[in-house]
Amino acid sequence: MEKQWYQRRVHGKQWYQRRVHGKQWYQRRVHGGCIRFLYDEFSVALEEETKIKFKCEDKDRLFDLHNPADAQKWLDRCNKILKIRHCNGANFGEDGRTVFSNAANMFLLANNEWIAVGKGTLKLVVDTNKSGGVPDVAAVMTVPSDNGPTGGKSYEFITAPYIKPKGNKTWILPKAMDMHTEFNQQTLAFRFPSENDAQVFQNIFDNSFRAAETEVKHDADSRLQELEEENKKLKEEIAALTRKKERLKEKTDALNKLIERARKQGKLAVSGNDQNLLDDDDDNDEY
Question: What is the DSSP letter of 96?
Answer without folding.
Answer: -
